[in-house]
Design goal:
alpha/beta, 2 domains, Oxidized Rhodanese, domain 1, single chain, globular, 5-stranded parallel β-sheet, 15 helices
């Protein structure tokens, strides 16, 4: 009896030992779960600063314009080296345009076709033409901010009141439309600047970011111009000294605009900034850029005027409304 009890006791010890030791192997300890991978937090993009920095950089060395004579000779010699964009209305384009020019009317269509324009302009000298050069100026500066290098055709295709322009010189034109080239896509350098370009043209107001001479003159006559407008003369200092619109300050086109952006923003708060130059072309450049920065700006239609360039400038329309 004692022997049987001892045997049962020893058996239970053996079974217990096997269970505890797992047949002589250590029981593995579960590894802790891996730490979650935390993606680095990107600093938020300051879109306003990015746009203003791009404007400041561009205005240090803004795009030049190409003369009608120069473009004509270049197109005759190497037409495939150029991409010409005609931003006039479709019906005016249909009546006659530069051979090979593609029509994308000024306004929302430019926003809708930015990627196609960028692709078509790749590796080409890109020229934008309009009626007199003013809306081409607006377009060219906006394109350059979006990373598409472009220049404007000086004096454009021509318009009533202008003594210069492609049509005034009776240069050859065609009526057959040229479709947008089917070119390989080109990556955007910066999506924020692309969006600023698109917003500018998508939200095009009825006045196309321009102010008529009559509206500005009426404000001057009513003595409300100082309350409603901040006027910037973009001409050379010596021309400003010879005569300018009452209340205007002089910020010559180019690097001076770049270094005075903060001042223009501050002085223009609660007002409409009015920029003018000689014929409207360089004012168009500044007009679009300030609007892209969020500064409500209008360029003076036909500019101040310049001898031999047009008969519609301020100096021709209101010669008695000039101060020194």
């Amino acid at each position: 009896m004692l022997t049987r009890k001892l045997s049962l006791f020893l058996s239970s010890l053996v079974i217990t030992g096997l269970i505890v030791t797992g047949c002589g192997q250590a029981v593995p300890v579960a590894a802790p779960p891996p730490a979650p991978v935390v993606a680095p937090v990107e600093a938020p993009v300051d879109s306003a600063k990015l746009i203003q920095d791009a404007v400041a950089t561009y205005m240090k060395a803004p795009a030049a314009a190409i003369l009608n004579d120069k473009l004509k000779s270049e197109l005759e010699a190497t037409p495939d080296a150029y991409f010409v964009l005609d931003i006039r209305k479709a019906d005016d384009y249909a009546k006659g345009h530069i051979k090979g020019a593609v029509n994308v009317p000024f306004g929302p269509e430019l926003a809708n076709n930015l990627d196609k324009i960028r692709a078509a302009a790749q590796g080409k000298t890109f020229v934008v033409t309009c009626y007199s050069g003013q809306t081409a100026g607006q377009t060219v500066s906006a394109l350059n901010i979006a990373g598409v290098k472009a220049i404007s055709l000086q004096f454009g295709m021509g318009k009533d009141g202008f003594l210069q322009g492609w049509m005034a010189k009776k240069y050859p034109m065609v009526t057959d439309a040229t479709p947008m080239p089917d070119a390989p896509a080109v990556p955007s350098p910066n999506k924020v600047l692309d969006q600023a370009f698109k917003d500018f043209f998508t939200n095009l107001p009825a006045d196309i970011y321009q102010i008529t001479q009559q509206i500005l003159k009426e404000a001057l006559d009513k003595k409300t111009a100082d309350l409603d407008y901040f006027i910037v003369d973009l001409r050379k200092a010596e021309d400003f000294a010879k005569g300018h619109i009452q209340g205007a300050i002089n910020v010559p086109y180019g690097p001076d605009v770049s270094t005075n952006l903060d001042m223009i923003k501050e002085k223009g708060k609660g007002k409409t900034v009015v920029v003018y130059c000689y014929t409207g072309q360089t004012a168009g450049h500044v007009d679009s850029l300030l609007n892209m920065m969020g500064v409500k700006t209008r360029s003076l239609a036909f500019g101040f005027g310049k001898e031999g360039d047009n008969k519609k400038g301020w100096s021709a329309t209101y010669p008695d409304a000039i101060v020194k």
